[in-house]
Amino acid sequence: MLNQRKEEADRQLQENIEKIDADAIHLYEETMRSMIRDIVQQSCNLACWVRYHKYDLEESLEEMIDQQPHAAKYIIAMNILMDDAEGSESPFEGNSFMTS
């Protein structure tokens, strides 16, 4: 009986998937591309901002966070990566998440 319910649910799911309009799929894909592009662009911009404020303006971590409190976790992460990169040839050297 449980197998029958699962097979029926799978069949209904497949029917619903087949009903999805190609235009809706295209719109979804374009929306996702745009969102991902915006996230990457904002991340790159903020990384450059952190680098500028850390090295050129020589601001402390606290000063940077005070200016952009909504991005505190990202600023902290970038600050750590930049500190780690100062002592190595590669910014990823010595980071356990990159060597595992």
Q: Topology, pairings included?
A:
Elements: H1 2-19, H2 22-56, H3 61-67, H4 72-86, H5 96-99
Helix pairs in contact: 2-4, 3-4
Multimeric status of the protein: single chain
Terminal Cα separation, in Å?
A: 45 Å
Q: Summarize model confidence as the mean pLDDT.
A: 86
* Main sheet properties: none
Radius of gyration: 23 Å
Tally of DSSP helical segments: 5
Strand content: under 5%
What coarse outline follows from CA principal-axis ratios?
elongated
Give me the secondary-structure category: mainly alpha
Which sequence of SSEs, written as H and E, runs from N to C?
Answer: HHHHH
Helix content: over 70%
Number of strands: 0
Low-confidence spans: pLDDT under 50, at least 5 residues? none
Quick overview:
The protein is mainly alpha-helical and 100 residues long.
Walkthrough of the structure:
By secondary structure, the chain is mainly alpha-helical. Helices cover 79% and strands 0% of the residues. The protein has helices spanning 2-19, 22-56, 61-67, 72-86, 96-99. The radius of gyration is 23 Å and the shape is elongated. The two termini are 45 Å apart. The model has no long low-confidence stretch (mean pLDDT 86).
